[in-house]
Design brief:
Blueprint lengths: L17 H9 L5 E2 L12 H19 L9 H13 L9 E4 L1 H13 L5 E6 L3 H9 L3 E8 L2 E2 L1 H13 L6 E4 L13 H14 L2 E5 L24 E6 L11 E4 L2 H12 L7 H12 L2 H27 L5 E2 L7 E5 L6 H10 L2 E2 L1 E2 L12 E5 L5 H26 L4
Helix pairs in contact: 2-9, 4-5, 4-8, 6-7, 10-12
Length: about 400
């Protein structure tokens, strides 16, 4: 049966990310994978989770296993409001809504704000989940390139002036300021301030996504863009996925109370409520200090993996290949020499049981073909050593082939 005639118009632009398709291949057991940006399952605090779950089921089973409020558990929202306030973003529980991971937050924000053809400012390269959420609601994405300080505000200002001349105002800018996915770059304080100033001048909102902010190995934390906001212009997304457990699907939105009410209306018709048991588990781990202890353990382990991958790249990758130096998070962004296809390299690497993500899928336009994202969070140290060494061999072979071709060798 052909279902095309039944689809809504918006369904025509919905598609699976090529990156997700490669995950299926990259996550095979015998593959040395740097593809999935997942927390390491080896670090999940299973014994402590079992202990806390047993207590929960005995003491709060009827509540923890029942439907909950659409906005989320009041206790968890209170805790998160206190956490946000300590981090320079004063708020109350009424400013918090619990979501099924921050991905649902991106979808809900897009759902309530975007009409077909509306403009959204995005980072390039940018997080595919955010790009996809915007695309699914038929928005026009305006990509702004990054450098080592984050989004290029000079290019952003030029684009905003151009849009203004067209009589167009962006609905919002979607940003991942800390250890950005896919590049690992952290936006400088000056860029954060300037982007917020531009949002005020041109009257658009900011969607600030911060799933990796607590995974900082070095350097001082920078103020969130939300901390600069006194008028409700910034909507903030947070998540327990990277610092605790991705499987419980507990994230949150912090926003003006009027926005929270509207988002709750949209969420109510989507899933009624988030994972009640997951919320209770996250709350008990957080309020009793277990997440903070767990995070300290994670930081040392992830930092060691980052350091190992960087040193292996330095050792094995040929001259002409460059990469970012993340101060935290899960990702290193690699740029190959101009003219080299990261996709072709990936296909050769998979034959050698090594995988990464080629960069083209993180771009709105037909760019980034010589770039790639490497995640160090899941891979064990030996696979990092072996996998990067194999990629170094392939890169040397590819560059030798290019040089022979350029010199007329074949």
């Amino acid at each position: 049966m052909n279902f095309d005639r039944f689809y809504a118009e918006r369904a025509a632009c919905m598609k699976t990310s090529e990156i997700r398709e490669f995950f299926k291949l990259a996550e095979e057991p015998d593959v040395m994978s740097f593809a999935g940006g997942f927390p390491s399952a080896d670090y999940f605090p299973v014994a402590k989770i079992n202990e806390v779950l047993q207590e929960l089921l005995v003491n709060e089973g009827k509540t923890a296993l029942q439907y909950g409020p659409t906005e989320g558990s009041w206790e968890l929202r209170e805790y998160l409001a206190q956490k946000m306030t300590r981090e320079g973003m004063p708020c109350s529980a009424e400013n918090i809504l619990i979501t099924n991971g921050s991905q649902q937050g991106m979808d809900l924000i897009s759902k309530i704000f975007l009409n077909p053809g509306d403009v959204v400012i995005v980072e390039e390269p940018g997080y595919v989940g955010g790009l996809g959420a915007v695309y699914n609601y038929e928005a026009r994405r305006i990509p702004i390139p990054l450098d080592n300080e984050g989004m290029r505000v000079d290019i952003l200002a030029t684009q905003l002036r151009k849009l203004q001349m067209e009589g167009c105002t962006p609905k919002f800018a979607y940003l991942v300021p800390n250890f950005q996915n896919p590049t690992g770059i952290t936006m400088s304080l000056e860029r954060r301030q300037e982007i917020f100033r531009l949002a005020q001048e041109y009257d658009f909102l900011i969607l600030e996504d911060n799933p990796y902010g607590d995974i900082r190995f070095e350097g001082e934390p920078l103020p969130s863009i939300k901390s600069m906001d006194t008028e409700g212009r910034v909507v903030y997304l947070g998540s327990f996925s990277k610092v605790f457990l991705p499987g419980i699907r507990v994230g949150w939105i912090m926003a003006h109370e009027a926005l929270i009410h509207k988002i709750a209306c949209a969420k109510g018709s989507t899933d009624l409520c988030s994972n009640s048991l997951g919320q209770r588990l996250a709350y008990h781990f957080a309020v009793n200090g277990y997440i903070e202890k767990h995070l300290q353990n994670l930081l040392s382990k992830y930092k060691a993996k980052r350091d190992l991958m960087l040193s292996c790249m330095e050792k094995y990758f040929p001259e002409g290949v460059t990469w970012t130096y993340p101060q935290g998070g899960f990702f290193i962004w690699v740029t190959f020499p101009s003219g080299m296809s990261a996709r072709k390299l990936l296909l050769k690497a998979i034959e050698r049981k090594v995988a990464f993500v080629d960069g083209a899928g993180f771009y709105v336009n037909d760019n980034g073909k010589n770039t790639a994202r490497f995640a160090y969070s899941e891979a064990d140290p030996q696979k990092i050593k072996d996998g990067i060494a194999i990629l170094g061999e392939l890169l040397h072979e590819e560059l030798d082939s290019q040089r022979k071709y350029a010199s007329g060798g074949f």
